[in-house]
Amino acid sequence: MTVQQLPDDDGVRVLRAEGELDILTAPPILEEAAALVHGARGVVLDLSAVAFCDSSGVRLVDRLSREASRAGSRFRVVAPTGTPSRRVLELVGLAALLADEDLPRALAAVRA
Amino acid sequence: MSRVSPSSVDGWETAPCALLTLRADGTVLEANALLREWAGRTPEELAGLRFSDLLSVGGRIFWETHLSPLLHVDGRVEEVALELRSPTGRTPVLMTAVVQQPDGQVQVALSGARERSRYERELVAARTAAERSAQQVTALQEVTAALSGAVGVDALTDVLLTASTGPLGASAGTLWLSGPGGLEAVGSAGETGAALPEAGVLLHERAPVPDAGRVVVPLHGSAALQGVLSLVAPEGGGDDPLDLEVLTAVGQQAGLALDRAHLYEQSASVAHELQRSLLAGAPPVDGRFSVATVYRPGVEMLEVGGDWYDVFLAEEGVLSVVVGDVVGRGLGAATAMGQLRSAVRAVAGPGVGPARLLSRLDRFVEQVEAAGMATLAYAELDLATGLLRYACAGHPPPVLLPADGEPSLVWDGRSTPLGAFVHPQERSEASLQLSPGDRLLLYTDGLVERRDRSLDEGLELLSQAAAQVAAAPLGEAVRTLTSRLLVDERGRDDVCVLLLSWAANAFERDLSADLSGLAGIRAELGSWLSQRGADEVTRQELVLAASEAVANAAEHGSGRRSAERVTLQARVVARTDGPADVVLQVRDHGRWRTPTASEERGRGLTIIGALVDDVVVEAGEGTTVVLRKQLRRATA
Predict the structure, then answer these.
(1) Nearest CB to B607: which of A20, A22, A55?
(2) The listed CATH number (3.20.20.140, 3.30.450.40, 3.10.180.10, 3.30.2310.20) that belongs to domain B128-180+200-268
(3) Percent over 90 (pLDDT), chain B
(4) Which residue in the set B519, B547, B607 is minimally distant from A91, CB to CB?
(5) Predicted ipTM?
């Protein structure tokens, strides 16, 4: 499990997650949540390449959205229909609030 | 006539023993000088007294109830110990008295018994000392024997704590041992939370130090302080309730025993590391079978043994399982074991089969002398059909544990140990058909052979234990069975136990509650579901539900402790009213429970509930969660 922080573009930051997001891999990233959103005016968490995602992934989305809100930045998640992350976010009712089908739409949403 | 004044009879007055003449009723008639001195009375004071008035209370009673009647009957008493009482003290005496006829007067002679009393006191003191000395020797012998019989630091800890409140006579005790971070409390008997004695005492004292109702016994090894035993003196034990001499000796012996134990544990861990490395290697992954193993190294001896097990694919779809035992111990046996293990893998292959494999191993052990007379049980399982072919070379019989029914020993397909001088022309083998859920147990003789019972008894116990664990998940079953059979065993021999389950239709894994194996189990469950024909969505959803349930069980049922296990089972269950269901069962064995459901846990349960058709939680010994979901098959 990795979360790669891409260079900010016009104050908007993309966090690209890869691998399996579960009870073992999520906690270290949760620790970094504040730092991951620090200084950005908008943050996009791209989960499209995540191969497995359970409630720990939901926890990560929840934490990042909280930290972003605290820092005054906007936050969206890329979770295309049919991916494991999308399914879990749908199940807990977060998909409709935070998820976008692809990166351009998510970027547009945080810049709006 | 009363004659309590000095008499003129020759020598009577000045005799070196006290002399009295009594009237028949016991009244003093005459008393010589020594008697008057011992009695501390003048002739005037003696006049009219009875003899019993001169005695201590005990003596008076003795006189009245015993001596006086005896005198009347027998006419004399001899050498009776009494005490004369004077206003200033007591004088122990030996009395001889004779009744004189016809007037019934009593002549009494009293000799001093001070010397005798001292002698008797000395005798008592000597006997007490001898008894104490014997107790010391006994205590010391007991503790010494226990110390020398203990193997390893843990066993020594037990011995010292048991001895503290046993032969050493303390009411409680606590033991600290030197570790990397200084002295660490390792155990207590009869108390908790005792404070570590002062460093100064420990550094400078080599002998036990009494300290505020306790005795601190330093345990010095040859080079350094190995630990310290602090004992509580029993209440009401007198001035010296704990024997410092014995404690000194025990402290010295325990220090040296700890030296040895540390050396032993270093060497033993090297040896066992070697053997473990020979046993390492992940078994092949396939949803159609499961294998659980236990390897328990012998603890009584330093050398590694020659026991091994192995699980590998002899060919595509055919699983080989082996448990073997090379004769002897030590590096030679371990090396031969490694070679033989490799040889089994090299020889097994398409078209070989158990009997021919053993014949080829016979030729191999002709080259490797140390592997001669090795025994092994070998079985090949056709994963598609459940046909099991097996052969035993001088090895204890495998146990078949049917999914339904009683366990039975498998006595067919037997022949001599490898490389035996007398051997049959051809090795024999046998086969049996497994049903889904059947299990086969292979093991080395350490599991059933013990000095205090026959092999038949051991096999009978094994069958009973196997019946008792029949319903348990695979890993739990093999661990429980092994510990039942070895329950009060001293651990002289190595033990390897392997339990194979042919699932065909079922999936069963257990993993540590630290969840380090979780990702691997998801992958295995995913491929098992694909083999069962599940479509992509069903597969993903079941894997997610299973993962959540396992994480939940590990976190909330077992506190993520690595020693706890969580079991995941999956099976396809046919339905009469429609397509089959997949039933997932997640079981934890922990006793610990979170009092309140956390937010994440609630989220996990929400997700599980949304993914499957039915959720049932059964709490009992541990918690079992059963999830059921229709098996939607991919369209061909």
Answers:
(1) A55
(2) 3.30.450.40
(3) 23
(4) B607
(5) 0.84
